Amino acid sequence: MKPLHELISLSGKTALITGAASGIGKATAFRFAEAGADLYLVDINEEGLNLVRERIREKFNVNVETFRIDLSKKPEIDLLWEQLKGREPDILVNNAGVYWFKDFLEVDEAFYRKVMAINLDSVFWMCQHFVRRRKERGGVVINVSSIEAFLPFAKGLVHYDASKLGVVALTRAIAREYGKRIRANVVVPGGIETEGVKRLKKEAIMKFDMEKIAISFNFNARLPMGRFGDPDEVARVILFLASDLASYVNGAIIPVDGGFLST
Ligand SMILES: NC(=O)c1ccc[n+]([C@@H]2O[C@H](COP(=O)([O-])OP(=O)(O)OC[C@H]3O[C@@H](n4cnc5c(N)ncnc54)[C@H](O)[C@@H]3O)[C@@H](O)[C@H]2O)c1
User: Belongs to which family (predicted)?
Assistant: First the structure.
């Protein structure tokens, strides 16, 4: 039986994390580095990426490479994997996502396509590249969905909810088809106090957006744990899934939501 410290170690592994410049992705990058993984960090925000890379290098003795990619553009995704030829990651975390609010009746095609391109299509193409290159050697995929996919709560997120349930179906289908070598699981966060969520809360207060403030209040009221989560509390679950601690976990949907979906 392997000892615990070996099971949780990612030493000798390389992990690619999208949306690593902020929030859950950034927290995951730090935990993976602590567990010994070399990192490919992907984001559209180059400045944020550089900052994360420098902080990780100061703290941990791992290799960190950053890639400024717009994940809504498939050619950029293809180019990224071209660059990684022969040094593909062992672990893929598709975390980047946007939760832009827009009334269902005001969503036009361009907006819809953009949200789908970032939240769902990019996960599809990233997984396809990964599975193509790792289906013999094996690997681990963790995709990030949302409680909104299962329990639409906030108004103005119909497009988002559809994209995030797509992520669940995609992940489970991969787990089913490639389970012999690839483990694929979904993490379902909810109410995590990330940079993105803090920005939203601030905007709602600055604009006196009473509807959003009320949603936030109702959200808190039905949250069993009575508090928002810290990005690191999601990162720790992603680390568990990436590691051999979760060697028999495949096709699972894991909420990290303080119990929100149970109410
Ligand atoms: N925070 C929450 O409460 C919560 C709840 C449910 C689901 N999620 C999901 O978790 C994931 C991370 O959320 P977060 O709160 O940490 O968000 P965040 O806004 O703090 O960070 C998201 C990162 O994705 C990057 N990104 C956005 N568009 C991109 C693009 N086109 N190409 C490359 N990178 C891009 C951003 O630059 C940013 O660094 C998202 O998929 C989100 O939908 C978050």
Answer: Belongs to the short-chain dehydrogenases/reductases (SDR) family.
